Amino acid sequence: GQSLEQPSEVTAVEGAIVQINCTYQTSGFYGLSWYQQHDGGAPTFLSYNALDGLEETGRFSSFLSRSDSYGYLLLQELQMKDSASYFCGGSGGYQKVTFGTGTKLQVIP
Amino acid sequence: NAGVMQNPRHLVRRRGQEARLRCSPMKGHSHVYWYRQLPEEGLKFMVYLQKENIIDESGMPKERFSAEFPKEGPSILRIQQVVRGDSAAYFCASSSGQGADNEKLFFGSGTQLSVL
Question: Confidence class of residue B100 from pLDDT cuts 50, 70 and 90?
Fold first, then answer.
């Protein structure tokens, strides 16, 4: 089976750095992806880790450690517009992509 | 617009009626997913389809729910005899189905189903 766990809520200050963790249990795990969803909006793709290590895309970075069944999304130089829900997603190869429980990030001034 | 198109955006049905949700994947994508989301909750997998083939429907209730992705035309999620508990946002996503890009999903704007 596949299950991914995330903290339900995180609060951080504008301009700071925040890390959103994701631990998973998947059979035949293929990779870890991250999506952002603003209230009332659709999820949008942020990043994907097929290999262990850090992937950087602008202010956002994502990390994967297969040996620890763990990954995280790192957001730097937080802006108010980063307030949203963030979901990690995983699959076992050519199978369904299952999402974690989601983390609601609130950025405060 | 080459993105994932869902319609309608909002659908109101009375209990016992049928709901049909449509999804046209991004151009060049052959794989479609349907997810259900309740307010303040996560994305719950329902079904994963390829053209003319259901790959995984383990998240879809056996009764009243069905999905298809024909050779021509959009993917359809059909809910028969809707009940109030079916009220939710239904998101469609598509992917290329090729290697690592299969993990990169592009989502539509969703259909908000309200059952009265």
Answer: low
Instruction: State percent of chain A over pLDDT 90.
Output: 72
Which of B16, B17, B12, B21 has the alpha carbon at shortest distance from B77?
B21
Phi, psi values for residue A42, rounded to 5°? -95, 150
Give B107 to chain A, closest Cα distance, Å. 6
Report chain B residues touching chain A, CB-CB < 8 A: 33, 35, 41-43, 45, 48, 55-56, 58-59, 91, 93, 95, 97, 100, 102-110
pLDDT band with cut points at 50, 70 and 90 for residue A85? very high
